Amino acid sequence: MATTTQLNTQPLSSNTHKWVYLFNEGNAKMRDLLGGKGAGLSEMTNAGLPVPPGFTITTEACRAYLANGKRFPEGMWEQTLDALHKVEAETGKRLGDPQNPLLVSVRSGAKFSMPGMMDTILNLGLNSDTLQGLVKLTGNERFAYDAYRRFIQLFGRIVMGVEAKHFDSLLDKAKEEKGMKLDTDLSAEDLQKLVEQFKAVVQREAGRPFPDDPYEQLRLAIEAVFGSWNSPRAFAYRNAQDIPHDLGTAVNVVMMVFGNMGNDSGTGVAFTRNPASGEREMYGEFVVNAEGEDVVAGIRTPQKISQLQETMPEVYSRFGEIGQRLENHYRDMQDMEFTVERGKLYMLQTRSGKRTAAAAVKMAVEMEGEGLISKEEALQRVEPGHVVQLLLPRYDEGAKEQARNEGRLLAKGLNAAPGAATGRAIFTADKAAELGRNGEAVVLVREETNPEDVHGMIAAKGVLTARGGATSHAAVVARQFGKVCVAGAENGGLHVDDEAGYFTAGGRTVHEGEVISIDGTTGEVFLGPIALIEPKFEEEHDLITLLGWADEVRRLGVWANADYPRDASKAVAFGAEGIGLCRTEHMFFEEERLPLVRRMILSAAEGTRLLEALSAAREELEGVEEGRRAQAEEALQKAQEAADNSQAVQDYRDALAQLGEIQQGDFYGVLKAMEGKPTVIRLLDPPLHEFLPSHDELLVQTTEMRARGETESEEYRRKAQLLEIVSGMREQNPMLGLRGCRLGILYPAINEMQVRAILQASLQLLNEGLESHPEIMIPLVGHVNELKVVRDILEDVAREVVEEAGREVPYKFGTMIEVPRAALTAGQIAEYAEFFSYGTNDLTQTTYGYSRDDAEGKFLLQYVERGVLPENPFQVLDREGVGRLVKIGVDEGRKTRPDLKIGICGEHGGDPSSIQFCHQAGLDYVSCSPYRVPVARLAAAQAALAEVEKDK
Ligand code: PEP
Ligand code: MG
């Protein structure tokens, strides 16, 4: 080993560039140069924390190495050795010293985290001599040989290019021969034999011996880590994450510490606060005389961190103090890994810890109270998804803990759709659908789901699958329908045989019909029921505080879509500042009203024709010249008689009058619940056939009656007549047919009735001394003339009501922007609208040319699953297409009418990403379902804060 010895003794040249930083020479700001991990380790070291000593070779050195034909830049190796010697001096151990060997890890660490993409080597420094030192120091031969065989395996694969399978097959063979399953079952002797076999494999496959010289090991390992920056998987990862390819990785060389050096050693993981409840207490686990891996392999049962207080009181208090310091330093709850080696505590890592929704909210609010973070930071600490989760039923944390202690935790899969679902495990969609319809709580368990399972998924409380990821069919559909989902649980040891009707997990077999509980927020699967918490918004005090701060920060208003007084009241309780969409058709669908609505629709065409003829005759008479007066009078009389004698006109008028009264009551209730807040009421929108009996059913019924010879019966006549009208109203594409303002133009009396009812309800409230601010919305406008015609008619009605009342009755007229043409001609449309509301459900349908009902059932979910579309555009607003139209509409509309009020009332109004877009596009408010109002308040605040950040 002449070359390395020579390198070892080379003097450090004094005037070279600095390539290597000891941990006490760096800090958190040096991520570019030291990478994320190196900067973090430096920061901890400088904060005075006990970090294992080590150093970082810079990203700059990596770049120079790669640019330099894979040669270390001048001075780098010497500086590496110099740093190493300083580490040796600090630890009293030496690389390659058989008595007291220093072992190191060599880890990659780029500026941006690239988990698992580059290489790490552990236990470097081992050879047959230092191994003996390790045996002596640990008193554990098995551990030492295991460390050595792992080192050869890792180094052989990563540095020397030996394929993993060669090592794996030897390891499997060793276990097989002894009839064992786990690596940990192998004895020191077995491992010693493996070490020899592994070395032979390296010689055979790499054509050179496994290096014994620790300095050569180190040099080769550094080269390998540098080289791994350009490995195909790292390259692909950077492409996917938009990370530049020219950054390079730093290399961290860190002293290895071992937790299995006796009863005064151990290893653990702890959080500075309880990550489940958010409580301010040290929370975690510790294992005496063990390595982290032993805990993962489940061969050692960890104890609670608090027990450390008795077994290692000094370590415990030091650790508590460090935790507090780290939390203060990073100003967030920390998730820390640590090892105790012979009574000495080492911090291996610290990072902001993952947390449940409840904990996120509690911690954010409490940390603000403690002066640790500002209100703005508190708002950014909570994800909108946390708010959703907090308002969903969830499992009681204590009950879950107990279930875990009872061994009822079966598996852990992917947390694909949040919430808690307890029910009988059912293995086929048909059976789940049948039981679900009968009110039974079921969880559909499948190997994976496909479109044929959707009816079962809808009927189930939740879905559990063995295979599939976050965008698998099960996950996408579950989120779509608000079902709980744990997906891909086979990685957590769950195997489903859905044909045989059972699954196995956690050493148990669960048969069809047994009760299971799945937690879609954590991915856990439990046997048996677990106590649920049904959240009450008014009791979520921390959330209420946080949302109060959100209201101070956000610019966007948050309104709600609500059709009934009870929904309106709920929305106000959740913090809604108005109603952005009251869909009046929902009132029509109520069972006792339907006959009246049908009467109105069935008589609408004929009734309108005769009534329009009557008013045309009146107009004619008004402007007629004297000579033709008698003729005009006669025509009017005829028109009057035709109308008076028409059953259709009578039905139409009666139905409208009765519905008008009912609607006045409806609007009174909603407006009263809104306590004077702006309330956008949309005039009738859907195609009328939705209120009528089905054409196909009527056809079957009349055909059957004819076959039975019942054509003379009264019922047959009635049905045949109905069929004729329904046939006449049939459309090929009703969603693009006679609906929205088109109805208002053809059958104006319906809109007139609604506007009268709205204003009279409002008047009633004003007369009671209450406030009322209705805003009347005309749907589906595509051409300015549509709006003009409808508005002119309705303004007359409004004026009439105001005149009759003899007092001010405030109201506004506005329109929905929900077809592309409306967005593109928004400048013209704004002349006749005091407000716009983007109906992004229809705008998405018409922009993409997808019929939502068909698309979601037939192909859209597959599109998302296969990555054809990044998301379902009916859930997350498509910024490039639909969003572009929204922006055009905002710009054009405000050019015409600078004070134009603009909102959104499609379902996107409750989606955080879409809300951010609405903020950026300059909308005034978002409107969403009452339950999404709290989420929208937070998301709107975060959008405002993100903008401030950007402008900094
Ligand atoms: C819309 O199109 O976005 C909208 C709110 O109207 P609807 O969903 O009732 O068609
Ligand atoms: Mg619409």
Instruction: Tell me the number of helical segments per DSSP (H or I, 4 or more residues long).
Output: 39
Radius of gyration, CA atoms, in whole angstroms: 36 Å
- Kindly report how far apart the N and C termini lie: 56 Å
- Profile the largest sheet: 8 strands, mixed
Bound molecules: phosphoenolpyruvate, magnesium ion
Helix content: 40-55%
3D shape = elongated
Structural class: alpha/beta
Low-confidence stretches: 1-14
Overall description:
- The structure is a single chain.
- With 952 residues, the protein is α/β, with parallel strands linked by helices.
- 50% of the residues lie in helices and 16% in strands.
- Strands 14-24-23-16-17-18-19-15 form an eight-stranded mixed sheet. An eight-stranded parallel β-barrel has the order 26-27-28-29-30-31-32-33, surrounded by six helices. A five-stranded antiparallel sheet has the order 1-2-7-5-6.
- It starts with a helix and ends with a helix.
- Residues 1-14 have low confidence and may be disordered.
- The structure holds phosphoenolpyruvate (PEP) and magnesium ion.
- Residues 581, 583, 685, 818, 839-842, 905-906 line the site of phosphoenolpyruvate.
List keywords for this structure.
binds phosphoenolpyruvate; elongated; 39 helices; disordered N terminus; binds magnesium ion; 952 residues; alpha/beta
What's the structural blueprint in terms of helices and strands?
Blueprint: H1 2-9, E1 20-22, H2 31-46, E2 54-57, H3 59-67, H4 76-91, E3 94-95, E4 101-102, E5 104-110, E6 120-124, H5 128-138, H6 141-158, H7 164-177, H8 188-206, H9 214-228, H10 232-241, E7 249-255, E8 266-271, E9 283-288, H11 292-296, E10 303-304, H12 308-311, H13 313-330, E11 334-341, E12 344-352, H14 357-369, H15 375-381, H16 384-390, E13 394-395, H17 397-405, E14 409-412, E15 414-417, E16 420-426, H18 429-437, E17 442-446, H19 454-459, E18 462-465, H20 473-480, E19 484-487, E20 495-497, E21 502-505, E22 508-511, E23 515-519, E24 524-527, E25 532-533, H21 541-553, E26 557-561, H22 565-573, E27 579-583, H23 585-588, H24 594-622, H25 629-645, H26 647-673, E28 678-682, H27 695-707, H28 714-729, H29 741-746, H30 748-767, E29 773-778, H31 784-805, E30 812-817, H32 820-824, H33 826-829, E31 835-838, H34 840-848, H35 852-858, H36 860-865, H37 882-896, E32 901-904, H38 912-920, E33 925-928, H39 933-951
Helix pairs in contact: 5-6, 6-8, 7-8, 14-15, 14-16, 14-21, 15-21, 16-39, 21-39, 22-26, 24-25, 24-26, 26-30, 27-28, 30-31, 38-39
